Amino acid sequence: xxxxxxxxxxxxxxxxxxxxxxxxxxxxxxxxxxxxxxxxxxxxxxxxxxxxxxxxxxxxxxxxxxxxxxxxxxxxxxxxxxxxxxxxxxxxxxxxxxxxxxxxxxxxxxxxxxxxxxxxxxxxxxxxxxxxxxxxxxxxxxxxxxxxxxxxxxxxxxxxxxxxxxxxxxxxxxxxxxxxxxxxxxxxxxxxxxxxxxxxxxxxxxxxxxxxxxxxxxxxxxxxxxxxxxxxxxxxxxxxxxxxxxxxxxxxxxxxxxxxxxxxxxxxxxxxxxxxxxxxxxxxxxxxxxxxxxxxxxxxxxxxxxxxxxxxxxxxxxxxxxxxxxxxxxxxxxxxxxxxxxxxxxxxxxxxxxxxxxxxxxxxxxxxxxxxxxxxxxxxxxxxxxxxxxxxxxxxxxxxxxxxxxxxxxxxxxxxxxxxxxxxxxxxxxxxxxxxxxxxxxxxxxxxxxxxxxxxxxxxxxxxxxxxxxxxxxxxxxxxxxxxxxxxxxxxxxxxxxxxxxxxxxxxxxxxxxxxxxxxxxxxxxxxxxxxxxxxxxxxxxxxxxxxxxxxxxxxxxxxxxxxxxxxxxxxxxxxxxxxxxxxxxxxxxxxxxxxxxxxxxxxxxxxxxxxxxxx
Length: 616
What we know:
With about 625 residues, this protein is an alpha+beta fold. About 50% of the residues lie in helices and about 20% in strands. The protein has 20 helices and 22 strands. Strand 18, helix 15 (about 470-480) and strand 19 (about 480-485) form a beta-alpha-beta unit. The protein starts with 7 loop residues before the first helix and ends in a 6-residue tail after the last helix.
């Protein structure tokens, strides 16, 4: 966890050093006694420079000669020896100021991710009889009953068996509004109980719980570097030695070849070294990506590395799973269409007949009815395989099922094309009406597809194992460009591979189910819907959306594009300014003071620009 510790204490020390060094510098400038003046300059220099000098020496012992500390040390020591003491001190003062701004920016970038690290639970209240024993979360077993009180973190995943409460899930999902949890609801570790006492049956051990997986994901987020970051690292390793060789040639060649004044060209070489420090690039570009990851986490989007930020920014195709991704994944009664009855009467008849069935469609009808069934009114229940169910209700034969069942009993019905399942109801030979049941489309699905196209996504695709008729209707409803239905998991992988061959930009796949894991791995960027997604999908994905909103995909792409734009701005700005001042320093136009401002100024501006990745 040390990776995420703040640097506020270091920043305080840096400020104290800068203040003390500046005081000694100002005093030295007004002293006329030579030995005292030099002594005060030396003290001012060492106060602000000794850590940089030590780090430069330490880097050399490790074989890392061409570091920014080495460049600053050589330039400032050279200036000091030449009698340019104020310039030498200024080099280190402004270098420390730049470092301080870097630390501030890193703290800001880490702040968002730090909120996620704070979700780690310290204990769990395990119930044993009438007693509660406080245990470490990793000591709690599956099946144990834990008690979560107001103000406590949810330590493990489980199912609520007693109580009702509101949970603060903002650290996980970015949502400010608490979620209501009651008996029978699944509960995820990492959220905070804000009211009420809950008793929860543990369903997963700590190592497999949501909070543990998220902590591992966040801690490893910086390990997968983007191509841009790798380029900057390689660039700095090649660039710095070249700069030092050029500085050496600037210092020696004019004197040896053209017999010019050695001191003049030494000064220009030292100025050249100060300007050439690549810290603006080395710091600001990784900081841009880190800020992008932090900004995404504030909105409930966990990206597993900067390489996926880069790929998200280049994507031009988004492929969706249907169930649980674009739709809610739960069957509900969408419409009741009676013939000569009231809606409530038709629903009651269907619910009574379906009382003994455990089919998901039967469950949705019973849930919509929502009243207790008087079983004495129902008899002779018969399941008709593949067609529906029949029963005697109040002495009359009732049939509830599909169109095949209606054909079988000789009842004529109109067969409609809708995005769902039609349950027909007949009593003896009389058609009573129909109930439409479907997997409801998520509220923001249609708008998300439209917004993705505005954002530059050229093609949207749906891959599903559902029936073609249902998939086509859902696809048309939300505005999907292409729909491929009735696919097995292997078929989904084949389709995504085919799409990736056809497209030049990146391909994103969004899914939540166990059968989506192979496709999530295959795509350029796999995004798992984490709110209800399976563990396999979350582990296989490159990014995880901790809410159930497809619109977060759009947010992830926008953040990625903004991050890449800022990183490229920093690269262009830093290289452009440095090249200009390097040329000016060679011709003696730029002094060391201007070189210091150019180096530190560029770094500070680039670092502050990187902070924009944190803004929504």
